[in-house]
Design a protein that fits this description.
14 helices, 17 strands, about 40% helix, globular, binds flavin-adenine dinucleotide
Length: about 450
């Protein structure tokens, strides 16, 4: 084994993992193929801001870095839905003051993590160093210096592969270790656009909300930035009548936006130019059968192990939770190989669960939110949480506000709760039609299994 751990990738997972390890006095080397984003702006047009929630915040606090991150955060209290006529309706995410999620700049957050690692622990990633090949049998990682074109051979163990959704380490595991991986590519892609700030850096639409323009087969969303702008993301089919393939010129883009998003299009003066310049991103769900290579050689972390679609705003949050859990296991056992195996066993059922919930949420965001029954079920789920706080927590809240409830438990409980909500709202149109006197017993009985199926973090 090396006297230090090698982390491949200085993205969100790699940077936070480095902080956790250094915090516990482990030596860390990080290699990153891209230039230092603190010196070069590289992310124009690609996933500029993200939603940070309780799981991510908990991990950042445990790593001792949350105080540095906090100034970057903009609270979003709920979804602001824009219908075709420009009518707005607001649906709160939770019912307690702290039940909010936060918009945060991706490059800003990565910068803060890298700065913290350097300032507190003297860790400076080696930038422009790309992993090119990996040989498990000979315990060797081949790195290419992108500036000098020289190659260097490193010993693997222990290697933490935080090299993202297209992970080279995962591909080597498939080829050399027979690891089974599925990658389901979504038929829809995404494109990021800007709604610029108003005069004096003001926000031109409600600042403390995640805006959604749900249009059935596709949707536009907006998350606020601290400079007064919003990052808008259009999620749309790659091919077909209304798709990225057909929006191939200024006129087509302008007509599409004017037809479907008339209230916000006038606020986006650079729309057609940005649309034609920015790339279409692809989204996929990666499920990896084994995350740990034998003998503590390597482990996959973050998107490298379990990339998911972005519709629950949980990809990064799950990555941060990974870092916390892997570090906790290392602290408990002091043994890399054992920790890598336990990490895989603990996390995989949970990341499979959030992958499934993220896919379900796409339909909810772009379509189901428009159904009055959806709003009724949401209201009822808050009411049930108020009446039976030890028995019922809305699924969204379990995922976003309760890091102590593992994703797999949230998924399972969510399934039972969905059936209760479905049944209880089948013959009513408003909440005041619920006859609590006669239904309380019935609901209590239905909720009993939820108490039994709940768990604490680490129970998987
Ligand atoms: C449109 C979109 C919206 C999203 N919104 C949210 C959200 O709201 N909330 C949320 O929680 N998550 C969100 N996510 C998910 C989140 O972005 C990812 O889960 C997270 O960035 C993964 O971090 P990572 O460090 O594991 O991988 P990455 O961020 O991909 O980092 C991997 C790093 O490894 C480096 N690397 C790759 N290969 C090599 C190599 N061969 N050698 C050296 N270095 C290498 C890369 O350059 C990169 O820096 C979203 C994702 C998308 C696409």
């Amino acid at each position: 084994m090396n006297p230090h751990a090698t982390i491949l990738g200085a993205g969100l997972s790699g940077a936070l993992m480095a902080i956790f390890l250094a915090h516990n006095e482990r030596r860390v080397l990080i290699y990153e193929r891209r230039p230092d984003l603190r010196k070069v702006d590289m992310d124009a047009g690609r996933s500029i801001n993200l939603a940070l929630a309780d799981r991510g915040i908990h991990a950042l606090k445990q790593a001792g870095v949350f105080d540095d991150v906090e100034p970057l955060l903009i609270p979003m209290r709920g979804r602001m839905l824009h219908d075709i006529s420009g009518q707005l309706s607001f649906a709160a995410y939770g019912q307690r003051p702290h039940e909010v999620i936060y918009s945060v700049s991706r490059p800003g957050l990565t910068r803060v993590l890298l700065d913290h690692a350097r300032r507190r622990y003297g860790i400076e990633p080696r930038f422009l160093q790309a992993a090119r090949a990996l040989d498990f049998e000979h315990d060797e990682l081949v790195m290419l210096d992108e500036v000098t074109s020289e190659t260097q051979r490193l010993r693997l163990a222990p290697l933490i592969a935080a090299d993202g959704a297209g992970s080279l380490v995962r591909r080597a595991m498939i080829g050399q270790l027979g690891t089974r991986v599925t990658e389901d590519v979504l038929e829809h892609g995404y494109k990021e656009l800007t709604l610029p700030a108003g005069p004096g850096g003001t926000h031109r639409i409600e600042r403390h909300a995640l805006h959604i323009w749900p249009r059935g087969g596709f949707m536009l969303i907006a998350l606020p930035n601290v400079d007064g702008s919003f990052t808008m993301t259009l999620f749309l089919a790659q091919y077909g009548a209304e798709s990225f393939a057909t929006l191939d010129g200024r006129d087509a883009v302008d007509a599409f936006f004017t037809q479907h998003f008339p209230d916000v299009t006038p606020l986006m003066p650079g729309l057609a130019r940005e649309f034609l310049e920015h790339p279409v991103g692809r989204m996929s769900t990666v499920r990896t059968e084994r995350w740990a290579a034998p003998a503590g050689h390597a482990v996959l972390l973050g998107d490298a192990a379990h990339a998911i679609v972005p519709f629950h705003g949980q990809g990064m949050n799950a990555c941060f939770e990974d870092c916390f859990e892997l570090n906790r296991l290392l602290e408990a056992t002091g043994d890399w190989a054992h920790s890598f195996n336990s990490f895989e066993a603990l996390r995989k059922p949970n990341t499979d669960a959030i992958a499934a919930m993220a896919l379900e949420n796409y339909i909810e965001m772009r379509d189901t939110v428009r159904d009055p029954k959806f709003m009724l079920r949401k209201e009822l789920s808050f009411e049930l949480e108020r009446r039976f706080p030890d028995r019922f927590i809305p699924r969204y809240s379990m995922v976003m506000f309760h890091h102590e409830i593992p994703y797999a438990v949230a998924y399972e409980r969510g399934r039972l709760q969905a059936r209760i909500l479905e049944e209880a709202t089948s013959s009513i149109d408003t909440l005041d039609q619920v006859d609590w006197a006669s239904t309380t017993g019935w609901i209590r009985e239905r909720l009993a299994p939820l108490v039994e199926s709940s768990g604490s973090p680490g129970e998987g």
